[in-house]
Amino acid sequence: MLNSYLYILIFTSLSILPPLFIAMWRYKSMEKYGKILHGYLWISLIIYEIAMWYTSLNSIHNHFLLNIYIPLEFILISYIYWLLLETKSYKTTILVVASLTLVFQILSNITYWDSFNRFNSTANVIPNLGIMLFVIMYFYELLKNGEMVNLLTFPLFWISAGILLYVSVNLFLFIFGEFVLFNNSSEISKLWIIIQSISNIIYRILLTIGLWFSKTPQQLSPSSK
To answer: For the stretch 53-77, what's the b/e string if a residue is b when 16 or more beta carbons lie within 10 angstroms of its beta carbon?
Structure first.
């Protein structure tokens, strides 16, 4: 009989399906960044869910999957906010921060030859900090421009709130990631995974709400009139 811990893991994996199905349904009416989000969800399903489950069930070391997924996730979310932000200095900031972050991750893997096959907490913390900065810049620009929007039906409010929550929790977890992995405590490891699972579920619920409200291209853009 499945224990509650395994139920949480299964439910977390299945939680990717609602936002993915809605993104597929709304795909034709989405602007470019909405379509990028659709692609991001597919990557999450394939790498973060299917490949992770396959390697885990077959006792294959799978930390390398995270080291592939996290940079891809960072690139796609960075590009989404580069498209959303209108202020030139903010766009430049995203390009600079994203470039430096990717260079840091590459150098980290080159410097430590085995780091690609282990959980590289240092290299994986930086992308979350970058995404936090981009989301905060987006919210600040939205307030600064005085856009009058109903937040309860504004897609990017839900999507950005979900992303901010997701990267904030991941930032905390990744800081203590290597401690958890090398502590040899199954209880601490389970608690770490449960916290991450709950964060992922809430994140995907918020993405689902945001995508549900993305009925037309005009509703997806804060600058649309």
So the answer is: eeeeeeeeebebbbbebbbebbbbb
Sole residue written with tokens 């209108």: 86
- Evaluated on CA atoms 22, 24, 30, 32, the torsion sign reads positive
Average pLDDT score, the chain: 85
| Residue among 75, 183, 174 at smallest CA distance from 122 | 174
Residue 135's identity, in one-letter code, is V
Q: CA 133, CA 101: separation in Å to the nearest integer?
A: 13
Contacts of 208 (CB under 8 A, 6+ apart): 18, 19, 22
| Contact (CB, 8 A) for 98 and 75 | yes
Distance of alpha carbon 100 from alpha carbon 46, whole angstroms: 27
End-to-end CA, the chain = 55
Return the structure tokens found at 25. 């349904």
Write down the domain spans for the chain: 4-220
Cα–Cα distance between 160 and 190 in angstroms, integer? 28
Q: Which of 50, 51, 61 is nearest to 14 (CA)?
A: 50
Query: What gap in Å lies between CA 172 and CA 191, rounded to an integer?
Result: 13
- For 107-152, how does the pLDDT look when each residue is reduced to its tens digit (9 = 90+)? 876 776 555 566 677 777 899 999 999 999 999 998 888 766 777 8
Q: Give the whole-angstrom CA distance, residue 193 versus residue 6.
A: 11
Task: Determine the Cα–Cα distance for residues 24 and 185; give it in Å rounded to an integer.
Answer: 41
Sorted by sequence, the CB contacts under 8 Å of residue 178 that are 6+ apart come out as: 119, 121
